[in-house]
Amino acid sequence: MSSNPDNGPAVSRREFDELFEAVRTWGRWPAPGRGAWNRVTADHVRAAASLVRTGTVVPIGRPWDTRPGPDNTRPALHHMSDLGDVEPPEPSAYKDFLGADYHGKSVTHLDALSHLAYRGLLYDGRDARGSVGAGGARFGSVQELGPLVTRGVLLDLPAVLGVDWLEPGRAVHAADVTAAERALGVTLGDGDAVLLRSGRFRRRRELGPWDCGAASAGWHVDAVPLLGERGVCLLGADGDSDVRPSPVEGVHSPVHTLAITAMGVPLLDNLDLEALSAACAGAGRYAFLLVATPLNVPGGTGSPVNPVAVM
Amino acid sequence: MSSNPDNGPAVSRREFDELFEAVRTWGRWPAPGRGAWNRVTADHVRAAASLVRTGTVVPIGRPWDTRPGPDNTRPALHHMSDLGDVEPPEPSAYKDFLGADYHGKSVTHLDALSHLAYRGLLYDGRDARGSVGAGGARFGSVQELGPLVTRGVLLDLPAVLGVDWLEPGRAVHAADVTAAERALGVTLGDGDAVLLRSGRFRRRRELGPWDCGAASAGWHVDAVPLLGERGVCLLGADGDSDVRPSPVEGVHSPVHTLAITAMGVPLLDNLDLEALSAACAGAGRYAFLLVATPLNVPGGTGSPVNPVAVM
Amino acid sequence: MSSNPDNGPAVSRREFDELFEAVRTWGRWPAPGRGAWNRVTADHVRAAASLVRTGTVVPIGRPWDTRPGPDNTRPALHHMSDLGDVEPPEPSAYKDFLGADYHGKSVTHLDALSHLAYRGLLYDGRDARGSVGAGGARFGSVQELGPLVTRGVLLDLPAVLGVDWLEPGRAVHAADVTAAERALGVTLGDGDAVLLRSGRFRRRRELGPWDCGAASAGWHVDAVPLLGERGVCLLGADGDSDVRPSPVEGVHSPVHTLAITAMGVPLLDNLDLEALSAACAGAGRYAFLLVATPLNVPGGTGSPVNPVAVM
Amino acid sequence: MSSNPDNGPAVSRREFDELFEAVRTWGRWPAPGRGAWNRVTADHVRAAASLVRTGTVVPIGRPWDTRPGPDNTRPALHHMSDLGDVEPPEPSAYKDFLGADYHGKSVTHLDALSHLAYRGLLYDGRDARGSVGAGGARFGSVQELGPLVTRGVLLDLPAVLGVDWLEPGRAVHAADVTAAERALGVTLGDGDAVLLRSGRFRRRRELGPWDCGAASAGWHVDAVPLLGERGVCLLGADGDSDVRPSPVEGVHSPVHTLAITAMGVPLLDNLDLEALSAACAGAGRYAFLLVATPLNVPGGTGSPVNPVAVM
Q: What positions belong to coiled-coil segments (chains A, B, C, D) (predicted)?
């Protein structure tokens, strides 16, 4: 790997493929379409529920955004379909239509295992072409995943580093994980959902939106083996987990690929972690009950969500 | 009130208006747009989390349904927007668009306080016309509500009555509540989310869909004062909480009106409570941690959701 | 071919394939994506314009229908997006969103040549899988077709037969064409758009909607060679041109297949021809200027339209 | 009126209101929802059809644009709903969903008379609030308008002035009309559809898109009385007819207001007139048969269209 000041060491396609093999968990799980969520047993759920101390509930979903921008190229739809004048009163009804091509850089959403294929294969080695069509996914749908209730851990990198935010392009490495674990007093463990805060939405509020596809802070692929060893079941982030530009030649979203396709680890993209950062700092605790409940979409490759942390 | 064999005693408009006044809680809450969710304090959240015993997670949202039917007159949309051939690989991406005019009888959804007005007024006496427009709701939006974490109680009427389901049109009364409380070993209390099971989806699977707007089992308005006294914060149901046809002259959804508009109690409609019924029966417990996380839609009158019960 | 009282003689798959070969025009046209519209030269346009006598303009598109029904399984969307309260006045603006999965039995629409493939091939022998993806059609799009201005001929079968409508399932044969030509005083010719009236919408208004996929009047495949000889460039109908149920074993839409895939003849489905029938009867003329202007959708497989006949 | 170098003389609100009164045609027409289209009689249709000389058909609708940009803030939707794998073969079907919030600066569309209100009133003095609701328009819908077949005249200002395009902000005045009439050999007359070319799409192809709401070439209100005297029935443009910024204080779209609300003259916005400019120059004629066929949307405030000029 050669050096790159912005987004970490460059990684060749061969090195990436070796990494893919090294972290691959195909064939391991009884319910392969749920991938790493098989890790989360009833014991994990009980343990996560027992983390609730203050009872503070912190939602981490972004507002539904209907305005286009450099980080919102497929704006969501929100239309009023009744303003008390369609269905007859009484009572008068106010109704609305919601729509979104939710994958992208704006809508807070979950990526199910059918979202990505590498070299033509989905997680567990399923043939992508045969598994996903215009009617949806027959393997790895968000319906197969269902909801997640587990321990969440906020890796609040700006808090660890004493900065307002990580600059776009800043790669997060294994050493950042261990440094954060020490600084925040928490160690990632089996079945955890790890939420990586880069401070994107603080930066966005102060400096305005930018093209996150061109530059964003996120994981470098060299951190993924450690995340795999820790046994995490989900990667969440205020970006989309991948540092951009990608340090891997010919692979635009290498962390997505390793997580989803090699390891069966779903992603939560575009979380707004600012309030959670403040809540964790206030409580002096970076682990909490996390609940993410995707919509029950047969064949869906993911879902808009509004997960909550319960402190 | 005169007698009606199907849907309980008929109620005149004057009687209904008296009931509305009797249960009205306008002006009571510091955050009026959250209505009865003001009842749910951090203490309630902690107490609800402490209910987790087995760690079983039961989602209660219906599948996203794109086929029209007598109970699905505005079918949801699900379109694949990328099948690995739009965004260039690697990896190849599979993406989809979701859309729904979600109020109605099919999509599992939350009704926020802006969903309904009675005599031109929303909850807390807000003028409906001035509060909701083509741009959305300026009072009582689902964004104001945010997520709900509280104790859920399943009123499993078919289990109490020893039937497969309540027939469409069967009204549920205060006496049914107290009988269910005794039979199920749980008493509704302050801040509880009550989930009324009529067995709709068991009936639907066995007999096929029907027009739930014309006939469905649900609360009679005469049960609402008791629910108010108990201090419930949410009415959920496998129907839409209202018995239909409505027993109230000139009011098509009287329980909606009393709950949302008079009492500030949001509704969860079209829950699939069949698996939860089995889980509660198996555990011998009808109270659990309930988490409902609506999408964060500014100005939205509600949201599709997939709530979970954690046993 | 064996006899079938309802929808004409049954046709084996082998017979169908022979018919397909017999009428196939692959390789014939300089602009293959426009298929039989290559027939319509500037001379045809001028000749069609010269047919205008009275100046009566008759639109033949159905109303946009947002209600589901047996003949509308994917109802169209119509949402108001501004009611004078989103964009600031003055003036105040009223805006709306329109959406439709328009292929089907409800929306009046044009089928472009990318709409159908037979044995994996589009018109002109193009590989369907390689030509159409989630990003749209790269061959045979509605953008390639563009608008059509030509002579239209109404084959008003109920008028010829002295009935209110053809019953669903009634097959239309070559002999019906020649009988209609004699009765109506018009002969189909090169570059003509033929509009087949079965009286569907008169029947629908009088008897209500039915499942047109299960039974509708339309062309039998045995009429297609004559239509090919006549050199028609478009098949329009108040149904979708195919008699249903299909008389061809294993082919659900055999006239679609012969027209679009073998002959490059686009289709206009779900025309409301009732007013045009009256106008033609009144004028004593069944030929007119026809103008159909699909939306300019790159990669679209067709388009909603509202064609006009100018008498 | 004071001078303004960019967008013509500034106009006070009082002056604008006087202009509104001067050109107002309320109460004049038997079918008020069709406004100035009442001018177009069968005689006009016949005369327009007789203009066809070469038989060249020139579509003037822009491509359906799904990418956001400074002139496309509500991008259109285009989703494939079947790629031969949903409905069973044979044949295999390729289908798509189209959706658009079409008013704006991108989609070629027709504005019906319900699109705009001034001081609370639609054309013909109808109360806007009582006439348009979440269910659509009850007066002035695009369904009432129906299709237009009439003489079209291209006012090709760049051709007249010997420039590539009019710069954004350039106001077009009555004197420009008479100069263009002389230069192009055509005089606007009763029932004509006037198409104003500014060269927007040539500029866009050469220089890229810009925010047309902030600056675009178009009519100054001082030209409207002449257009009214000429008896035009429609204003079309490659922009949206209004010069921007608006020269009228407190009125963001004054030409829209005078045309639609005072005069009942629908608008065609976002036409691509580049090919038509070349065709007219080649033919040495700027008048032609124009056909615009909006979708038949009950209650619609307009429609996406792809009009054609037939030379």
A: none
Per the listing, tokens 């009617």 go with: A135
Question: CB contacts < 8 Å between C and D, how many?
Answer: 283
Q: How is residue B170 written in tokens? A: 């069967």
Q: How many distinct helices (H) and strands (E) make up chain A?
A: 10, 16
Please spell the DSSP secondary structure of A3-22, one letter per residue.
Answer: --TTTSS-B-HHHHHHHHHH
pLDDT digits (tens, 9 = 90+) for A182-191: 999 999 999 9
Separation CA A149–CA A143 (nearest Å): 15
Q: Tell me the nearest-neighbour CA distance from A95 into chain C, angstroms.
A: 11
Structural domain contains residue A74? no
pLDDT at A141 over 90: yes
What is the ipTM, given to two decimal places? 0.97
Residue B248's pLDDT is 98
**Pairwise CA distance, residues A234 & D112, whole Å:** 51
Judged against a pLDDT cut of 70, whether residue D86 lies above it is answered with yes
Q: Is residue D82 in some structural domain?
A: no
Buried b (16+ CB within 10 A) or exposed e, B52-87: bebbbbbbbbbbbbbebbebbbbbbbbbbbbbbbbb
Is the minimum CB–CB distance between D83 and chain A shorter than 8 Å?
yes
Q: Can you give the pLDDT at residue B2?
A: 41
- For B106, the token pair is 């099919």
**Tens digits of per-residue pLDDT, A144-171?**
999 999 999 999 999 999 999 999 999 9
The C-alpha atoms of residue C255 and residue C239 are separated, in whole angstroms, by: 12
Residue C62 burial (CB < 10 Å; 0-12/13-18/19+)? buried
Give the CATH number for residue A23: 3.50.30.50
Report the mean per-residue pLDDT for chain B: 97
Q: List C-alpha distances in Å: B73 to B209, B267, C66.
A: 12, 20, 9
Rounded to whole angstroms, the Cα distance separating C120 from C127 reads 6
Hey, is the C-beta of B127 within 8 angstroms of any chain C C-beta?
Answer: no
How far apart (Å, rounded) are the C-alpha atoms in residues A267 and A302? Answer: 9
- What is the token pair recorded at D251? 């009125």
**Which token pair is B263?**
């009492």
Q: Please report all neighbours of A, defined by 3+ CB atom pairs within 8 A.
A: B, C, D
Condensed to tens digits (0 to 9), the pLDDT of residues A5-54 reads: 478 899 999 999 999 999 999 999 999 999 999 999 999 999 999 999 99
In a domain, D71, yes or no: no
Using CA atoms, how far apart are residues C103 and D93, in angstroms rounded to an integer?
10
**Contact predicate B33/B141, CB 8 Å:** yes
Chains touching chain D at 3 or more Cβ pairs under 8 angstroms? Answer: A, B, C
pLDDT below 50 — which residues of chain C? 1-5
The alpha carbon of D267 is separated from its chain's Cα centroid by a whole number of angstroms, namely 3
Comparing C-alpha atoms, which of D33, D301, B211, D34 is closest to residue C92? Answer: D301
Confidence of residue B3 (pLDDT cuts 50, 70, 90): very low
Number of folded domains that form chain C: 1
Q: Is residue B48 part of a domain?
A: yes
The tens digit of pLDDT for each residue in D11-62 reads 999 999 999 999 999 999 999 999 999 999 999 999 999 999 999 999 999 9
C81 part of contact set with chain B, CB < 8 Å:
yes
Q: Which domain holds residue D44?
A: 3-64+104-310
| Residue in D closest to A93 by C-alpha | D134
Residue B224 to residue B188: CA distance in whole angstroms = 13
- Contact check, Cβ <8 Å, B134/C86: yes
pLDDT tens digits, D234-289: 999 999 999 999 999 999 999 999 999 999 999 999 999 999 999 999 999 999 99
Q: Is D42 on the interface with B (CB under 8 A)?
A: no
- Dump pLDDT digits (tens) for C181-201: 999 999 999 999 999 999 999
